[in-house]
Every structure is written in structure tokens, then in C-alpha cells.
């Protein structure tokens, strides 16, 4: 449970890992995730940046869908930023095995978005996917300084 403290001032909120009580209910997870962000912002500041780590790459059939849902939430809710961790994950471990690079990714996001540093904080993102027979063309968008 989180409660408001009059003596604390937050520059941003950072959440490492969002627990999944029902690993098969993506819609419920998305709803609860969005409610978490809005409730914390209601306590402190409606525009407070919210940073989080995407779920790791553990070998669970539904997790790619959860990771995509997290990506969509980060795009849908303003001032919300996601650090990718799947490339540092382990198929047998729910947590990324290499935590320092994941922390560095969060730091880059914060430096760019909360401290307004002129840096590249994310890698390329898929912009479109086109299939033509057996060929697939993927277009990426790249963040600019």
C-alpha cells in the first residue's frame, strides 16, 4: 500500500517489476498496471514520470503478450517509459540475470526524459511489418537526439 507523504518530493517514479497474479489474464494485468500508474500520480503529481522494467524473457508462453502489452501501455500513457530487459533475461529465471545493464537503461531514460539530456535512451522500435509471400519486411524507427 502506498500513502502520500507531505515531506517527500518525487522527481519520478520507478518500478522494477510488476507482479503477475494471473499470468494468463493480460487484460486484467493491463488494467491493474494503468491503475497503479494513475493512483501513484494521483498521490503526488499527475505528470510525474513513471519508469518501469519490461518483463524478462523467461520461457513462459504468455509473456511475449505481456511484454507487448507493457509496450502499449508505455506508449498510451503520457510520460511513461519502459526499459527493455528481455535480452538480459534467462529462460529459467523470472528476473534478468544481468541487472546492471537494465539499471543503466533506466538511468538513460531518466536522463533523457526527466533531466532533458540530449542523448539516445532507447534502441530502434518496430514501426511496421509487411508480409509478401514468404518475405517479411520490418521497418524500424530510431530515436533522434
UniProtKB/TrEMBL annotation:
Keyword Iron-sulfur: no
Keyword Hydrolase: yes
UniProt feature coiled coil, ranges: none
Pfam families: SASA
GO terms classed as biological process: carbohydrate metabolic process
Superkingdom, taxonomy of origin: Bacteria
Keywords in alphabetical order: Hydrolase
Name of this chain's protein: Sialate O-acetylesterase domain-containing protein
Amino acid at each position: 500500500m502506498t500513502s502520500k507523504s507531505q515531506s517527500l518530493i518525487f522527481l519520478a517514479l520507478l518500478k522494477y517489476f510488476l507482479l503477475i497474479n494471473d499470468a494468463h489474464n493480460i487484460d486484467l494485468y493491463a488494467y491493474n498496471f494503468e491503475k497503479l500508474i494513475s493512483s501513484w500520480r494521483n498521490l503526488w503529481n499527475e505528470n510525474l514520470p513513471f519508469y518501469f522494467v519490461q518483463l524478462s524473457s523467461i520461457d513462459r508462453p504468455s509473456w511475449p503478450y505481456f511484454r507487448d502489452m507493457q509496450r502499449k501501455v508505455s506508449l498510451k500513457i503520457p510520460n511513461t517509459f519502459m526499459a527493455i530487459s528481455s535480452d538480459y533475461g534467462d529462460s529459467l529465471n523470472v528476473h534478468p540475470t544481468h541487472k546492471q545493464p537494465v539499471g543503466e537503461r533506466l538511468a538513460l531514460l531518466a536522463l533523457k526524459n526527466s533531466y532533458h539530456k540530449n542523448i539516445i535512451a532507447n534502441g530502434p522500435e518496430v514501426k511496421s511489418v509487411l508480409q509478401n509471400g514468404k518475405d517479411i519486411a520490418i521497418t524500424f524507427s530510431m530515436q533522434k537526439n
